[in-house]
């Protein structure tokens, strides 16, 4: 998942490198390369490019602010949901840090580790600052 503009620029550059490599692979007829190996290389590159393009589209969609609701299927998805909410709200990691009274590096660490080092109190504060609200009461079901 792309979490900030720097990662977005890096991912965009990587995608362009993959496009160029795929084009070069198609245009060059390297002697001694078995056709099956060439096909496998091309498919692997295309698969990686598709993954990068999917991440770029997701970030662009979130950054555009068109999506106002993010579904949360489980508590494990909460960190990703908080990052998505920050992007949707148009806040940079630095701006969120200011609102929380933290150094920007702390928010970067939280997001890089998907909030593993954050206390429940901090996660709750992040959700509050971002305006994250539950649409309906959460329900807890115990495994039998």
Described by the principal axes of the CA atoms, the overall outline is elongated
**What's the rounded overall pLDDT mean?**
90
Helix share bin: 55-70%
Number of DSSP strands? 0
Strand content: under 5%
Give a short summary of the structure.
The chain has 144 residues and is an all-alpha fold. It contains 6 helices and no strands.
Describe the structure using short key phrases.
144 residues
Structural features, described:
- There is one protein chain.
- The protein is mainly alpha-helical and 144 residues long.
- The chain contains 6 helices and no strands.
- The chain has helices spanning 5-27, 35-63, 78-88, 93-100, 104-112, 120-130.
- Helix 3 runs parallel beside helix 6 (120-130).
- The longest helix is centred in the middle third of the chain and has 29 residues, at 35-63.
- The radius of gyration is 20 Å and the shape is elongated.
């Amino acid at each position: 998942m792309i979490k900030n503009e720097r990662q977005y620029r890096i991912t965009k550059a990587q995608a362009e490198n993959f496009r160029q490599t795929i084009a070069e692979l198609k245009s060059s007829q390297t002697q001694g390369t078995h056709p099956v190996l060439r096909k496998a290389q091309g498919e692997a590159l295309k698969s990686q490019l598709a993954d990068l393009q999917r991440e770029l589209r997701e970030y662009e969609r979130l950054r555009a602010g068109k999506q106002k609701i993010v579904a949360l299927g489980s508590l494990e998805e909460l960190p990703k949901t908080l990052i998505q909410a920050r992007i949707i709200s148009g806040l940079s990691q630095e701006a969120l840090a200011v609102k929380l009274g933290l150094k920007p590096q702390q928010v970067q660490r939280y997001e890089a580790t998907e909030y593993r080092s954050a206390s429940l109190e901090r996660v709750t504060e992040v959700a509050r600052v971002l305006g994250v609200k539950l649409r309906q009461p959460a329900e807890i079901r115990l495994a039998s």
